[in-house]
């Protein structure tokens, strides 16, 4: 009887330690999530400015995900600045229409996203950057390989 009581007591203590460890891990994960989200929010806010340095821009992309980048584009559009963070142009003539019709190839294009940029080049450059940004949660990236971000080469015209 004594043996079974002590065994069950030891077993319950081990379970309690496992639960405590899980709680500690959970609290650490929540804290890491908060820290990562706060850092990403600061980056989003900094990208709403004009005159962003290329090196700074590229170095910050590792700490945001695609949703954050979409927020940057949307917020810049609301401020009437080109959605591409490396472009300082103001959006002056934003089309009110939602679709563009190409009569040469008989195709209708939804230009909702394109309207957030001052030019097709900025739209393409932004989409190129967005395609490189990771989609995984920020707080789970410690074991992921962060890509080396590259800018779309500008065409010489």
UniProtKB/TrEMBL annotation:
Belongs to the RPAP2 family. Putative RNA polymerase II subunit B1 C-terminal domain (CTD) phosphatase involved in RNA polymerase II transcription regulation. Keywords: Hydrolase, Metal-binding, Nucleus, Protein phosphatase, Zinc, Zinc-finger. One of its GO terms (molecular function) is RNA polymerase II CTD heptapeptide repeat phosphatase activity. One of its GO terms (cellular component) is nucleus. It is found in: Nucleus. Its EC number is 3.1.3.16. Residues 59-142 form the RTR1-type domain. This is RNA polymerase II subunit B1 CTD phosphatase RPAP2 homolog. It comes from Bactrocera dorsalis (Oriental fruit fly). It catalyses: O-phospho-L-threonyl-[protein] + H2O = L-threonyl-[protein] + phosphate; O-phospho-L-seryl-[protein] + H2O = L-seryl-[protein] + phosphate.
């Amino acid at each position: 009887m004594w043996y079974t009581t002590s065994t069950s007591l030891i077993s319950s203590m081990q379970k309690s330690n496992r639960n405590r460890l899980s709680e500690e891990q959970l609290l650490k994960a929540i804290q890491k999530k908060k820290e990562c989200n706060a850092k990403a929010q600061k980056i989003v806010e900094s990208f709403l400015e004009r005159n962003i340095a290329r090196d700074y821009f590229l170095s910050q992309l590792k700490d945001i995900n695609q949703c954050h980048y979409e927020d940057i584009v949307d917020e810049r559009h609301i401020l009437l600045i080109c959605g591409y963070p490396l472009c300082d142009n103001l959006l002056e003539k934003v089309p009110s229409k939602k679709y563009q019709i190409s009569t040469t190839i008989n195709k209708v294009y939804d230009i909702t996203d394109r309207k957030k940029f001052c030019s097709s080049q900025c739209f393409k450059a932004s989409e190129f950057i967005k395609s490189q940004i990771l989609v995984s949660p920020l707080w789970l990236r410690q074991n992921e390989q962060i890509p080396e971000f590259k800018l779309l080469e500008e065409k010489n015209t």
